[in-house]
Amino acid sequence: MSLIDKLNWRYATKRMNGTKVPQEKVDRILEAIRLAPTSFGLQGFKVIVIEDEALREQIFNGACQQPQIKEASHVLVFAANKKVTQEQVNEYIQDIATTRNMPLEALDGFKGMFAGVVAGDEQQNFGWTARQTYIALGVGLAAAAEEEVDATPMEGFSAEALDAILGLAEQNLGSVSVLTLGYRDAANDYLASAPKVRKSKENLFILK
Amino acid sequence: MSLIDKLNWRYATKRMNGTKVPQEKVDRILEAIRLAPTSFGLQGFKVIVIEDEALREQIFNGACQQPQIKEASHVLVFAANKKVTQEQVNEYIQDIATTRNMPLEALDGFKGMFAGVVAGDEQQNFGWTARQTYIALGVGLAAAAEEEVDATPMEGFSAEALDAILGLAEQNLGSVSVLTLGYRDAANDYLASAPKVRKSKENLFILK
Q1: pLDDT value at residue A119
Q2: In this complex, how many residue pairs, one in chain A and one in chain B, have their CB atoms less than 8 Å apart?
Q3: Band of the pLDDT at B207, cuts 50, 70, 90?
Q4: CB atoms B139 and A142 under 8 Å
């Protein structure tokens, strides 16, 4: 199947059957997420990868009563940095210098481009870092489809409750979206056989 | 090459060589963007696909002085709905009913879930629709890599100027990101041979 075929195959799976996704498939999906581009390359977020059943029960009861939380193989939480700090920028610049074998001074201009971001407040910073997580979410969705692993992106949860359960605020993080990975329970999911609804090309694209 | 290999091959191309991307590749990248999931499936955005050279010159001069705007084969502008309207929700619900051959009444519950969104103001609505465009951007980036087409995601432009040039505000749209499609000019792009910098797995993922 081509990527297009696989994107047509996938859908926002509402019921999963509990089957575990093979580790090498999970690893490739996570690697795609890791490789996803972000603004300035900063990757101002973390992805919490949850298999633990007790923790998933807690999330189900306290933050997101969707059955996939318990029926999925893995629950991924995309959590963005609330504040972009100078320390984080410095670490990133050091990473570039090391990876590319460059003197730090050669990156002074690039480093300076973060001044406005670091000067911003939490609301501004989180607005920006949260958007970046959606690029990784999109790449992760494509990678899951490529692996023929079902994946459900979710915004329908209490971020406040999820942050508390995972202790995210203490780590300068706020949850933005959830992606469950697993396999569809086609017999119990009415959406499994429902035709996909998307805008027509004519309605989505404006050609100039 | 696997998708992972292709994601390693791609990079935020700074210089492109003007070569046109074959139409069937552009079509597949756009189809992937069209198939990208969004919250509630609403797809509250449009993608402006620009080939016209005069328009690209105008964008370069007025909104985004990055050479890829002129050197790319196609310039895609992701523009999100400023306001989510009841009319738009009704159209979408009608689309579902038609596509899935369901009575409209069967969708009353789902339709009701949009009440809070429609009641929101422009700032709230645009904050939400803008995020959704990044999922499509991520899927589009993966699809471009799959096609071995270079792609550069950009936030570094004047949204106000770009909106004015494209007449977006009058269409209830605001530009969020730009994705240029084309082919790298490796000889003139210092980034073409630079090792990719990404957080380590240990630094990006928290396993639970």
Answers
A1: 97
A2: 189
A3: very high
A4: yes
Q: Report CB contact under 8 Å: A34, B153.
A: no
Residues in chain B with CB shorter than 8 Å from the CB of A131 are 130-131, 134
Q: In this structure, are residues A4 and B28 in contact, taking their beta carbons and an 8 Å threshold?
A: yes
CB atoms within 10 A of CB A80: 25
- The rounded distance, in Å, linking the Cα atoms of A75 and A95 is 29
Return the residue of A nearest to B129 by Cα.
Answer: A131
User: pLDDT digits over A32-91, tens only?
Assistant: 999 999 999 999 999 999 999 999 999 999 999 999 999 999 999 999 999 999 999 999
Say what the pLDDT of residue A155 is.
Answer: 97
Burial class (CB in 10 A: 0-12, 13-18, 19+), B107: middle
Q: Which helix (H) or strand (E) holds B95?
A: helix B86-100
Q: Taking the mean position of all CA atoms in its chain, how far away is CA A206?
A: 28
Q: What is the reported pLDDT for A142?
A: 98
pLDDT in tens, B40-58: 999 999 999 999 999 999 9
Which of A3, A49, A198 lies nearest to residue B146, judging by beta carbons? Answer: A3
- The answer to whether the CB of A98 falls within 8 A of the CB of A193 is no
Instruction: Please indicate whether, in this complex, the C-beta atoms of B141 and A35 are within 8 angstroms of each other.
Output: no
Å between A46 CA and nearest CA of chain B:
5
Exposure class string for A5-25: b at 16+ Cβ within 10 A, else e: ebbeebbbbbbbbeeebeeeb
ipTM above 0.90, yes or no: yes
What domains does chain A contain, in order, with CATH numbers? 3-84+120-204 (3.40.109.10)
pTM score, two decimals? 0.97
- DSSP letter, residue A148: T
Strand ordering across the sheet containing B150-154: A205-207, B45-50, B74-81, B173-182, B150-154
